[in-house]
Amino acid sequence: MCGASERPRFGLRFGVRFSPAARRRQRGVTLVEIVMFVLIVGIAVSAVLGTLALTGGRSADALVQRQALAIAESLLQEIEAQPFTALSPDGTAEAIGPEPGESRSSSTTPFNHVNDYHGYAINGIVALDGGAIAGLESYGASVTVSAQALGNIPASEGLLIRVTVTGPGGTPVSLTGFRARLAP
After folding, report:
1. CA separation for the pair 175, 76 (Å, rounded)
2. Rounded CA separation 7/182 (Å)
3. Is the pLDDT of residue 11 over 70?
4. 6 has pLDDT over 90
5. CB 114, CB 79: distance < 8 Å
6. 3-state SS, residue 150
7. Residues of the chain by 3-state class (helix, strand, coil), percent to 5
8. DSSP code at position 126
9. Partners of 176 in the beta sheet?
10. 147 and 96 Cβ atoms separated by less than 8 Å
11. For 93-123, what is each residue's pLDDT tens digit?
């Protein structure tokens, strides 16, 4: 037994004796260490999730921009493929804007000249035959055609074509083309 004059052989902690071997086994973390760990991990996770949310939102914007650009390119190519002459096929002088009764999707009187597209606007992209294109219902397009000089080409012989497409986010994408008259 241990008397008042005798010293305990092993350390006393909270009334319980621990041998040196037991003290070495007593490893762990304190409450303060656990709280700090949870706090640091929480901050790191919220930063990573915030970055992922921001990146994910912006990647959708890029898709809308690319789709709007593809629509604008397609419409500009369609317009530039039309003839540009001083007289319409029926022999009357061409003026900027469509002739009465002409429309882009008409089977009897379709646009037949570059300048017929002036003022053309559409909400919900459609094919040449007028059929809706799935997935493009929330896009809109507008076209302006105006006489424009370029270099040594006078304004009476050149047309500036501007196609503007607006996607679901409301951000417009504009493409500009130039067409010179090659024949009378």
Report:
1. 8
2. 115
3. no
4. no
5. yes
6. strand
7. 35, 25, 40
8. B
9. 162
10. yes
11. 778 888 888 888 887 888 888 888 999 999 9
Instruction: Measure the CA–CA gap between 91 and 166, rounded to whole angstroms.
Output: 36
Distance in angstroms (rounded) separating the CA atoms of residues 142 and 118: 9
CA–CA distance, 27 with 63 (Å, rounded to integer): 54
Residue pair 124/132 in contact (Cβ under 8 Å)? The answer is yes
pTM of the full predicted structure? 0.65
Chain length of the chain: 184
Per-residue pLDDT tens over the stretch 70-94: 999 999 999 999 888 877 666 777 7
* Rounded mean pLDDT, 60-74: 87
Q: What tokens does 17 get?
A: 């004796």
Residue ranges of E strands in the chain:
11-13, 16-18, 121-123, 140-147, 158-166, 172-180
User: What are the C-alpha distances in Å from 141 to residues 55, 65, 126?
Assistant: 28, 13, 10
CA dist 34 and 42 (Å) reads: 12
